Amino acid sequence: MKTIKLKNNEVVPVFNFLQELELVGQASRGRTKFNKRLEEKNKEFNEDLTEIRKDYFEVDEAGELVVKDNKFQPKEDMTDEQKKELKDRVKELEEEEVEVSFSEYSKKYEALFEALDKLDVPLKGQDAFAYDQLMTAYEENEEEK
Predict the structure, then answer these.
(1) pLDDT tens digit string along 43-100?
(2) 102: which of 37, 73, 87, 121 is 20 to 30 A away, CA to CA?
(3) Cβ-Cβ contacts under 8 Å for 2 (sequence gap 6 or more)
(4) Domain boundaries along the sequence of the chain
(5) Do the beta carbons of residue 2 and residue 145 sit within 8 Å?
């Protein structure tokens, strides 16, 4: 089964890149379906990130992270070792792979990737990076077949 594999930290840039493209027909519908899956993956990532943070930052009576001046409040007794552990756990989560399967919308997804392959607009910066990440993931899947 065809899948696209991205790292958690690539999901939002790819979503934003796709959101801004002018696509028509099946490619546009494929983008919409694909981005819905990316939103789900990003929601899971954020939920996991919140759970990690709860081990290191103050939480209120309702179990929600305490925020003051737009910053999470570290637990009073947090050590340098725990700060490093937090950083390592977050980095590991960001590098974790997520998969979007082609099973349900394969024709729409194929139309999207065909349109992306024929994309004829200049890209730079974050858009160029997101395009490269997405197309590399697609090509790697093609090679696995």
Answers:
(1) 999 999 999 999 999 999 999 999 999 999 999 999 999 999 999 999 999 999 999 9
(2) 121
(3) 101, 102, 106, 109, 141, 145
(4) 3-144
(5) yes
